[in-house]
Amino acid sequence: MKRAYIATATISLLIIYSVSAQTEINTEDPFVLKNDHVQFIFEPEHMGLLSMTDLSTMTEHINPVDGKHLLWEIAFAKGKQLYTITNNYKPCSYASLENLADGSVRVKMEWNRLRWWNENDAVSVTVIVELPENSGIANWRIFVENNSDYWGLWSVLFPIINGFPEAGRYDIARPSFARGGQLIKNCDQKQSGRYPGSVWPMQFGSFSNGSNSVYLGTWDSGARAKEFVVEPIQDLNSQRYPIMFDGRRHRKFDPEPGERIYIIHYPDDMGVQGSDYPDYYPVAFGVYQGDWSDAARIYRPWALKQKWTGKGSLSERTDVPESILNLGLWIRDDWIWNDVDGTPEEMNKPLVDAARKLDVPIGLQWYRWHVPEFDNLYPHYLPAKNGFKERVADLKAHDIIVMPYINGSSVDMNISDFEKYEPHAVKDEAGGLRLHYYSNNSGRLLSMCGNQVFWQDEVESLVDDIKREYGVTGIYVDQVSGLFHELCFDKSHLHPLGGGNYWANGNRDLLAKVKNVALKNGGNMVVTSEGATEVFFDKLDANLFWSQPSEREIPLMQMVYSGYTLFFGSTCDYTKSNNYFRYAQGQAFIDGRQNGWMDLGLFKPEYKQKVEFLKKCGKYRLASLDYLVYGQLLDIIKPDNQIASFSDEGFGWGMYEKQRKAEIPGAEARLWKSEEDKLAIFLVNYTNKPILFTCTVDPSKYGLPVIKRSVKKLGPGKNKYIQSFTGIFIETINLDPAGIKIVELSPEKQ
Prior knowledge:
The chain is built from 10 helices and 43 strands. The chain is an alpha+beta fold and 750 residues long.
């Protein structure tokens, strides 16, 4: 049987030996942990990770640094003081290796009873690395036992690897706010975000140089607070620890040079004397062959076993309304549409006319339906503006989902009864309120602690009142899924201070109460939220993507969660070019999103061609629900031939990144699989010229049998049989200008 194995090393000689039982490692020499896929080399004494080699291509991922390599860093705090130590503070006390029955190897490294800050036996740190037999990705664990009678544990950075990723060498794929994901090619800028939350909404990222890739993620079923930090920056020597508030500073800090990555794990009761970090979950870190899509395939099997997918696939769930499953397109607008005022029916006419033109089921996300100005006097939305109830009834008569906006997280300090809410707001380390600036016109908004039952019940009651009094058929709960775990230090809240998983659990409870209102008395009201945070997928019917078009967009989240939740929104500046618009809408369509979420100004005569393309996306979506709703996004299909491209300005989201000019492929394609193991190629031409797109699809690559399959053209109206094939499908597909095609590869009956 193959086994992972270990090697000890001197500077000039590697001595490799197999170990059959737990064996002590000589930490005075470097040692090598390896299997057939990967080789890790740890430095002598302090165990910093100095090398990670993909043995399939002999690719080294960790560069030398001017100094020592890192493995972990922990921070202690008391009051405004914060001090850190790393694995280089003291030599490793003991290390051992054990071969496990499944062929994997477990390495254990201990820093025992360290004297720190003039206190004996202040802290012990244990690191465990388990390398499976048949994978280049190891599971890394850390235990921190804090025995101090004064200091509290503040954070655990693990693993922290310096010398990786080299600036400009890797294409970095990451989950991102309100979009499927981003691929930053030749990345040389910092990437970071807190999980859980929509800034880093899934627990992994990947780093690819060609097919030589590195995976970093966590297997955290509890969704505890953590921060992913990637710094591919040359000559980096800045402080790596995020300062929590002014006055808290590093002491005795000597930064190790070199690019670096790390995960900050926030423990329960941050800064509380004696607080520990007892290894809640493993970190997955190592090498693999492939790209970002393969990283998504690594993550998906684990993700589909978590509580947020516990209700099953969309075909199995009974709590998701048919109206949202079968929706074609979305509109987003305010109280007055295209400057039309008058009776409720007259005010609704622009939307009713638009729905008639689109000729598919549509939904309306409705802003400014309440009397207070937007982002002011929350959570006091009621009573609604005069005529709201009548307009809702009229839109429902036209089979339009009516989904008004509320905010599920923010309260305005300017409300007269703020003293009722203040005790339940998020507090920082010094007891201050965590205020958020959104615009010069907003109120003094701050975040409520989702863990607080008082706040959960307030939101539940508000939704119940809106549903009962106005008859809406949807509710959009802003920010709950769109923010992130804000570290709360209010002792009266009775949750762990700072870190933990109370934010995820509390907001899951909040959304569950909203969902109960939606389904009460046989109701079928749609419940959505901002962005897309995986921990809330079983509590929501759909998730809003509202980031602007970007050449960096990848369907990372769809490749993980397609078939288990819905994503909607393809907003863009529709005053820009037709190519720009078709890219925003066409890519969203083939990636599985419900299109739309633009205002009714789109329906002015000068944008007629854009409306026609949006309508086409909606029509093709309804013709392929077996794939885009209930199926799985399998892969990006890259053309075998050279195809035309176009360039335009305005890519990237001005709110978070500088907008820029970008080169965009003229056509793209995706491969989807239905629950019946049918395959379908979704193609779209973003340009006004025909494009020939040659593609190759091998069903066996995705675990499907090599059988005879029929090739059919799917779309609105009648489907058309084209041909049959067995084995690998290779075809050049002619895409008309602004064209959409769906080519189905379905098993033939034997």
